[in-house]
Amino acid sequence: MGIIINNKKDTFHLCNQEISYIMTVLPNGQMGQLYFGKRIRDREDFSYLLETIGRPMASCVFDTDKAYSMEHIKQEYGVFGATDYRMPAAEVIQENGNRVSEFCFRDYRVEPGKPKLPGLPATYTEKEDEAETLVIGLEDERAGLRLELMYTVFAKGGIIARSARFLNRGEQNLRLTTAMSLCLDLPDSGYDWIQFSGAWARERQPKVRRLEQGIQSVGSLRGHSSHNHNPFLILKRPPADGSQGEAVGFSLVYSGNFLAQAEVDTYDTTRILMGIHPHGFEWKLEPGGEFQTPEAVIVYTDRGLNHLSQTFHRLYRKRLARGYWRDRERPILINNWEATYFDFTEDKLLEIAEKARECGVELFVLDDGWFGRRSSEHSGLGDWIANSERLPDGIAGLAQRMEDMGMKFGLWFEPEMVNPDSDLYRAHPDWILSAPGYRRSHGRYQYVLDFSRREVVDHIFGMMEKILSGAKVSYVKWDMNRSITECYSAALPADRQGEVYHRYILGVYDLYEKLTERFPHVLFESCASGGGRFDPGMLYYAPQAWTSDDTDAVERVKIQYGTSYCYPISSMGSHVSIAPNHQLNRSTPLRTRANTAYFGTFGYELNLNLLSEGEQAQVKEQVCFMKKYRRLIQFGTFYRLQSPFDGNTAAWMVVSGDRREALVGWYRTLVGVNMPYTRLRLQGLDPGLEYHVEVQGSYVEGPSVHEAAAGMHYGDELMYLGLITTDGSSGENEGLQSCDFDSRIYILKANDR
Ligand code: DGJ
Predict the structure, then answer these.
(1) Whole-structure pTM value
(2) 450 close to ligand 1 (CB < 6 Angstrom)
(3) Where do the domains of the chain lie, and which CATH numbers do they carry?
């Protein structure tokens, strides 16, 4: 790894074994992008990469040159208004109303490791030799504005982390209306664009289309990263696929409004922008003021989409997630939400917990409804004091009872919200976000607290701190159940209202930081009506997130499959729930619900007392299985094998670091009769090792599947020829009948000989 600087040519070459990122100071002082991709050797002079040819209708920078136009130059942080007509990385309005900027190179510095971003989540290093950071200083003299572009190259993996900082060194007030984290101009448009979109209960489903001239973008204006679009994007060079070819991933470490955009111009060059969504954003920079953008992470691979995902997984698992739980196996939990909703007493909770404990579950999580006068969605949010009618000895008493039973105890909060029917709202009606004189829209009968205000964040911290320090709580589920509307703060002046969305999310981060610092051993799981804020910003504070409110196994395979393109398995909250499922009314076999939920943090979300004895015995086996394999699942190398979006079957696998152990999850939606022969090509095994293959979780001890797949097979057979997954059902032999929504887990272990 290194940053090679050629002072004579003003060129910077960031590289490691896998990638090169090359940029240069352009003749007009702005920064130009020369190359980003597979590692190339350094050379004295890369200026030949700067292509400028005179084009008709071009607007030109220099009086004597008809060819040099920013419109046709690949840049590092393009601005609008002086010959570049593409969407800009930054826009600054000066006191005289001028919006033209010109950021020219001034200086640079190189720092070992990676500096922190104040108040913001970001990837980090533990040792200085893990990464190197280049900070390029630019200046717009007329505006008195300094811009620092920060680039970190990691020693391992094709990873570059970027962000920008604006420093007002002049004497006038400036208005920053666009401040992207990343701008990358690529020389062509030969890519497929993959976005991860959906809605509540069907989050992060990959949508693929060819990049085309014009602008294509996804984003959020909801105040949270959203169920609808994830702050993650892949550009894939056809014919790249799961196991081969070039791709670049772009991920924003941020949980608020975002924009991820590709603009392809009429000469087929592509500009990628990623950062805070400029709509509704305006930051006042007073003299001496600074603004730091969130971080964006770019990953390049020439080894296919699984490798791209694995690079993100490793980085986000080890150098974005933090704290006590980062590297630890996650507790198997039972959550009472789908078991009781708001209808519970302490005795009922203890009954659910006792059966779960008997089955080997380790943690009981008390969800919504334990506080204030919260008997429905209509009241109580904001009053973080235990409801003494339901919990006579408070949270402390219940937590102690759980501990005495041998269970850890976890608790649900929704810290950012308030119901109008609550003591908090009655005491502080001005603490919510609302536009003066306008209707206050509710979501789930609740308002959003104004987290841009320090006193609001401090007050909520005080209430949560009291509960968490007064009881044995080892886990917190932090929920957030509505999007922001009427985003106006009573505490900020008119010219700072464009800052509220961002200040809000900084307030959320501040509360997370305070709580995780004060309670370092508590495991935090983030949640936003399921997966409405499943983003890297949250992972910095909470190493796991509730993936979706949809707990149906068939839908979950899709959601978890889509989520895995960027996020590690250890981050995906996944539970077994009751059949028929509460979201879809679909009944799937208990084994399939477990076979899906294993590939995440694993837990249950139902009253196990309502299951038959046979099912309870299955649950015990499932818990044993997960305890045995959770290290491999949560911290192994994950491969997507067959997409649920492409057909009737889906498959994925995890492989241990030493490649001696692996688990394969296989899922089929509908059963067929007299089905074709099928083989599944595995990945990541050692071709020369012989593996013992065992099938588990299948419907019946049927000879065909078991005999063909089970037994000893070399890694090369399993990867190149495939694992036989042919189903036994011929339609004639009843003993072999499979069913809809079937699934299997294959356990692979290398032979010791
Ligand atoms: C939405 C969450 O996603 C659910 O798991 C549950 O916690 C409810 N909120 C409680 O209101």
Answers:
(1) 0.97
(2) no
(3) 2-53+60-319 (2.70.98.60), 333-527+575-627 (3.20.20.70), 641-750 (2.60.40.1180)
